[in-house]
Amino acid sequence: MSFSWNVSRRRAIGLAGIGVVGAASVGAGVVQAFASETDNSVAFAGEHQAGIVTPAQDRLHFVAFDVITKDRARLISLLRDWAAAAARMTAGRDAGEIGAVNGVPEAPPDDTGEALGLPPANLTITVGFGRTLFRDADGKDRFGIAAQLPPALDELPHFPGDVLDAALSGGDLCVQACADDPQVAVHAIRNLARIGMGVVSVRWSQLGFGRTSSTSTAQATPRNLFGFKDGTANLKLEETSLLKEHLWVQPQDGPAWMTGGAYLVTRKIRMIIETWDRSSLAEQESIVGRHKGTGAPLGRTAEFDEPDPAALPEGSHVRLAHPSLNGGARLLRRGYNFVDGSDGLGRLDAGLFFMAYQRDPRKQFVPIQRNLARHDEMNEYLKAVSLGLFACPPGVSDAGDFWGSALLA
Amino acid sequence: MSFSWNVSRRRAIGLAGIGVVGAASVGAGVVQAFASETDNSVAFAGEHQAGIVTPAQDRLHFVAFDVITKDRARLISLLRDWAAAAARMTAGRDAGEIGAVNGVPEAPPDDTGEALGLPPANLTITVGFGRTLFRDADGKDRFGIAAQLPPALDELPHFPGDVLDAALSGGDLCVQACADDPQVAVHAIRNLARIGMGVVSVRWSQLGFGRTSSTSTAQATPRNLFGFKDGTANLKLEETSLLKEHLWVQPQDGPAWMTGGAYLVTRKIRMIIETWDRSSLAEQESIVGRHKGTGAPLGRTAEFDEPDPAALPEGSHVRLAHPSLNGGARLLRRGYNFVDGSDGLGRLDAGLFFMAYQRDPRKQFVPIQRNLARHDEMNEYLKAVSLGLFACPPGVSDAGDFWGSALLA
Question: Which residues are in the Dyp-type peroxidase N-terminal domain (chains A, B) (predicted)?
Fold first, then answer.
């Protein structure tokens, strides 16, 4: 599954018969401009979905869809078409031939074209199912799967301080596209939306311009918009026994179709950066519980020094989120910084699009967030406006398989 | 002006005294993750502002500010502070010492921190003045500069089809930050906004995730969200005599303080991509006037083949924008693709943030856009929601100079 781009998106142009000169001229200039470390691809098929423990790519496009059909067969057919397109796009190919069906120029193209000539850029496409897919707002079981609703997909409780926008929350399906080139991530989401016309409708969508977590020990810890290193204590792909304990749904957890999957919590957190920027360095460090420069826990000297929660300020974020205060719970975080323009009040609309994968949110995200919502001194500078919870099934196998085939097929 | 990052943002941490281990630990991991071709810096000072003919960087953060002081001295002081911070940041340094004024942790930091350890990433910071800086909405000359208002900064006419949002249009000042790393661009805008607290207020702001123009013959032509190569016929930095004719304000143009500057038109254009994606390849190519795969003008074979406007469809974009139909007018375009989430109607809110620099918009942007607004078949798929016009003064010289010093000092 690891085609290099020059036998993929470039070849696609040739095959579509757009012109013999096409392949050559697209090839020449584009290599020079775009070839880089992003010239790599991530395998699409596997036991687990890619895009969870995959070393966090630099850019994100996330979308939540409402399913607008009531026809189970159409839903299955869409998931099958999406999987086929995802396998192509993650390998650096187009979603379908640019030259349109059978090369007929009178038909719309099967790929929108904006990623032509771009490398795979480590694109991953990760799909999840919301609670409303199983039982809609009226309690209706549209697709005959309500009996398969995982208890871990329970509605999340209200957290004090949250001011959620319902139009930016929830969704029947979600797709996370991560890539090192944002145009590649946007292209993936846009083509899945195009393929889904008439079956799904975009509910909300979020771009993230920079990762705020590392999911591998080989990655440096990035910084969030508070200016601090974020996710130092994150679960990492190398920690396979911790991943079994905290990330992947195990056979004994049930339902069976979720074995090898994980639950994703999304939370769009607006940061009141103008107020933060007026607070002193000492106060910022006391609120976070780490030094701003090095990322070391307060009182320690290096980023990866173990924090001693008891020695940190009581309301500090690192202390409150520490596993020792949350029954040992840990998360695999995969958040991104965002700026969505301005807020009409003279301020940037900026913050963190938090994403965390886990084995059971009832035992992980919920207790941690309850603790933070009550005591975190950082709350003064935060406003959560969107919340989502999705069951991400295990990986797709190679041949004609699709996400949730064990649930739906 | 070309410090490498490891004697800049890294050194800043050491100087601020955050901890002796800081410099070493920030250094190690970050180099591995981020060092790349973006490890370069662009000179800040010069005859012209950087960020106009500078080879278009991959990412954009653009902001328009309202000036909320009536005090000319405070405005001048802000521009001077901004120039000092811009000189530091474009060299890959912090906006001011992270350890706060004189290393006092009880003061807010002079840099917000999220770019610590990141390379200069070819950051450029380009500043422009809106018409309302000279004469506000009530016709008031707040800063005693109304007599210096350039005639070329005339209010733009209304173009048929535009549905402009006043809150997303205009502005007293604009700042364009371009960089190859979006976190570096966001950091620059955010710190200028922080420095400007009490003097300016964010009016609107726009992120662009991918460039849609090349401004150098060394760059490959990128694609817009219609999937087509965009800006093939753009003015390029190598074409120095064309730049003199079409881009840089000349001494005979007046006013004197604008000599060596240029006028910037910004236009946020929502693309109705869902409708576009349902149109046939043949129709798309006929509307654009180019082949989708190669970017060649219709009927020709290679991207840079000269189009014959008379041979192109009458309502095609390339024909209507061709200099031969617009009195020879040309533009230096510097647009970016954007996705701003979704529109609440089941669609992505996506499009092009158009930016074009020029010597005189009355002779360039206005006639070209009039022609396009009337006849362009692409209009069916476009909706302009924001418009801006800014006078970007010449470059800043090294020592304590600032943008528009010849106008304001």
Answer: 49-209
